[in-house]
Amino acid sequence: MSGVPSPVLPPKKASWVEVYFDLVFVLAIARVAHIVAAGTGWSAIVTALGVFLVLWWTWIGFVLFYNRYGDEQSLVQRVLLIVGTIPCGVAAVAVDQLAHGQRLVFALSMAAVRVLLAVAHHIRPGTLTTRIGAGYLASAIGFAVSAFLPGPWWALLWVAMLVAEAFNLFAANRRHRKLSQREIDEISDEDNWRKAVELFRPTDAAYALQANHLAERFGLFMIILLGEVVASSGSGVLDGTNVSWAALVAAIAISGTLWWVYFDSAHVISERIIVVAGGSPEVARSTYALGQVAPAFALIMTAGGLRQLLDGQADSIAYWFVSIGLGVYFAFMRVDVRITRGFWFRIAGIVATFPLALLHPLLSPHAYIWVVLAWALLNAYSISVGGRDARAYLEVPGVSVPPQAAPEEGTQPQPPDDPAEPRTVAIT
After folding, report:
1. What is the dihedral of CA 422, 414, 287, 382, to 10 degrees?
2. What is the DSSP-derived secondary structure letter of residue 401?
3. pTM of this prediction exceeds 0.70
4. CA neighbours closer than 13 Å in the CB half-sphere of residue 177
5. Domain-by-domain residue ranges, the chain?
6. pLDDT in tens, 61-87
7. Distance of alpha carbon 165 from its chain centroid, rounded?
8. Given this model, what pLDDT does residue 416 score?
9. 336 Cβ contact partners less than 8 Å away, ≥ 6 residues apart
10. Strands (E), 340-399
């Protein structure tokens, strides 16, 4: 089959204004990690997770807007993102108040952020932008109202708004077709899950997301979180009475190991999945927004636990924060691809990570950090081997990156290229 080749523009990169916008979330993540570090029980984890989820979806709102419509030369967009840092920054400082039951400033800040997102979408014509803008306007009203509601109604309202945003922001105008029995048999085979992903390719190019931009933005956010692991470790040493520079070395090395695991496995695999899916919003939601929220929070949990271990006053809960945090992090590093080598070995290693905290009676906090480092290195090697196999499996000839400039809604994807002139997109 032949047709007119679809244009492949240079990959969209994160803009400098987006990087500046992320600086506010450095502060926000630090305050959420402080909730964990200052906590003495699991209630601190529940509180920190709730705050983090609100911040996570707020950040994603700006990421997806810029992914679809971002123009670094647009004065309006620059102003919107810079102005957006103001309520986000206020919310970051108000995290401590929220953790102590005073949510007025945080809720109103989140409402203001969503007003900006609503305006950003409404000034662009189109059905999709109108839909998303209306959704953000409703969320803004919801957050404003929640500031004055008694518990647990405000919390339930927050959950409802975040769920609505998750569906609205990743809206997909995908026409469904009835599958043949042969196709059903093929995608039922675990070795052919790639074919199932391909079925989610958008039929309207206006809904397609930029795979490389998503990968870069989520990668930058993970860098912020990994930086918090280092910062929290340093704070633990500075706050402690029994300073151990050797334990600090091990803690920083743990952060580097976790960086290696993410960028050698989940980062590349997730990007290639979106490429195979043709920029499908549904696949992007499951792969990034939902698939990476758990490892992202796991890093905060690990950071808080390491800080407690390093300040010399840790009890058993700090051991559990670290072991569970690492276990969750490893579990979401795309180890679910069964066609890769050592699958069951990786699964066993991850499962064995969770009960490492049982070593609490046998190891001092500083010795435990070194044991955790050794175990993390073993898992990092195993996951990296599987990651290379998965990347090779997803290296599919003829799959192109979605268009870099958002086309008008209703535009259908161009026919595939002539097989005589195949193109291979290599994601590195």
Report:
1. 0
2. P
3. yes
4. 9
5. 11-169, 198-402
6. 999 999 999 888 889 999 999 999 999
7. 15
8. 38
9. none
10. none
